[in-house]
Amino acid sequence: MTSHKGIYTVGITGASGAIYGVRLTQVLLQQQYKVHLIITEAGWQVFREELSLDTSDRAAVIAQLFPDSSELLEYHGLHEYTASIASGSYQNDGMIIIPCSMGTLSGIAAGASGNLLERTADVMLKEGRTLVIVPRETPLNQIHLENMLKVTKVGGKILPAMPGYYHLPTSIDDIVNFVVGKALDSLSVDHQLFTRWGE
Questions:
Q1: What pLDDT was estimated at residue 198?
Q2: Chain-centre distance of CA 29, in angstroms?
Q3: CA–CA distance, 104 with 106 (Å, rounded to integer)
Q4: Distance (Å, whole) CA 86 – CA 40
Q5: Any idea what DSSP says for residue 195?
Q6: Domains of the chain from N-terminus onward
Q7: Which of 121, 127, 35, 116 is nearest to 89 (CA)?
Q8: Which member of 90, 109, 115, 136 lies 3.0 to 4.6 Å from 99 by CB, making a disulfide possible if both were Cys?
Q9: Distance of alpha carbon 47 from alpha carbon 12, whole angstroms
């Protein structure tokens, strides 16, 4: 069995910006964290549209994006309610949903637990563990804002996909790495994805 530094759950939904979730998962695995990965049906559609991936064989896509990670990565179906992460007794260091659609945010804010992703987020909140939500939507209406406030009031953190530019990005990768780096900061995971102010 491969040893690991800690355990995180990563959710990838159908909001634009699937590359954020992919890059973050890759960094966690490279640093020897165990990752439970959940991808919504709309998330798979974004993989096809934005990442130009053939999603007809999902296992092959997972293997392509996260090679040599079979012992650290556990992929869960959206309705796999018997998964370990669905229980508060499972020791999970935190969860991040990156990117997070407004539909998923709504389900979490309402406590709906309508699928494994929403259930695991609910577990994080009820157990007082780290839950980071990276919304990728604009503009935001009052319902979106109220749902973000609801989640924040019960312990979640909202980290919008808003890249900074003081590190003088020169590529899309630089912009992606900034957002992912900020997300990793919220999980207390070390990284070297961007140059910090003052460095």
A1: 82
A2: 13
A3: 5
A4: 16
A5: P
A6: 7-161 (3.40.50.1950)
A7: 127
A8: 136
A9: 10
